[in-house]
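User: Hi! Is it possible to get a structure for several chains at once, not just one? Here's what I have:
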Amino acid sequence: MRVLSGIQPSGALHIGNYFGALRQFIELQRENDAYYFVANYHALTSVRDAERLRAYTFDVMVTMLSLGLDPERATLFVQSDVPETAELAWLLTTVTPMGWLEKCVSYKDKVEQGLSPEHGLFAYPVLQAADILLYDADLVPVGQDQKQHLEVTRDIAERFNRVYGGGEDVFRLPEPHILKSVSVVPGVDGRKMSKSYNNTIDIFDEPAAIRKKVKRIVTDSTPVEAPKDLEGDSLLALYRLFATAEDIAEIERRYREGGIGYGEVKTRLAEAIIERFAEPRERRA
Ligand code: ADP
Ligand code: TRP
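Assistant: Yes, the chains can be modeled jointly so their relative placement is included. Here is the combined structure:
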């Protein structure tokens, strides 16, 4: 299958990006014809400083390589090196009803967070459709928050096929690849981990910074000896991503029975995160 995905260079990549996207990128490069790119045209909707955008673009590519994306297996590139993407985006825009973009929550969210309501931000899903359709992708690994953009991509492709296909399909309809277990990784404040919420733990944060950020993870005030809630606890949700099955079972049992403090779980989580990325961190250096 042809697999394709992109990541915006709008800041350092975090563990939400890792579990929601990058880990699937690495997994899928083995058996598939994979294409991964740095979406620097998209990042222009939030990063205007040329030096910074260049540095972030480089950083995302280096991060992908350090984590194990392999140029022998996958095609790695920078979005703007294929300017035909922008050309196709215009052609697609001519068959995209305003209403499809008006209902996209990502646009509304970003405007609420303070990005200015410019046309590029509004038409962002059309450029994303061009990214995907240009390469005849079958499968697009992303996090849950991109599901709606994938639906818009399919709708645009169908409409384009109907209008211009003369009975044949011009574009292939892509499927999203979203893993349920990691679809939304929580940040240290309990909301979705996101660069724009300032609640991230970055993949390549220094160990000291990881320990400090993990300490900030919001928990309730259940005392050590009391039984604890397993649902909606972001500390436990993060721990599940990093720990072994035995360690998870142990912690969950002690949550149920009481007799475990959040501080202990935080220490174990921080060390597990540092350990997980130790080898990529060295490769990156
Ligand atoms: P951010 O929200 O930090 O700006 P991006 O929008 O650049 O992140 O996301 C890049 C990729 O990582 C997308 O596929 C997105 O779905 C995924 N992703 C981002 N945050 C999370 C999260 N908290 N949990 C799971 N996946 C995520
Ligand atoms: N919109 C995606 C994000 O914010 C990044 C992206 C751009 C993308 N083009 C894409 C993802 C094409 C998958 C396919 O994370």
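Residues 7-8, 10, 16-17, 19-21, 142-143, 145-146, 182, 184-185, 192-196 surround adenosine-5'-diphosphate (ligand 1) (CB under 6 Å). The first helix runs from residue 15 to 28.

User: Great, thank you!
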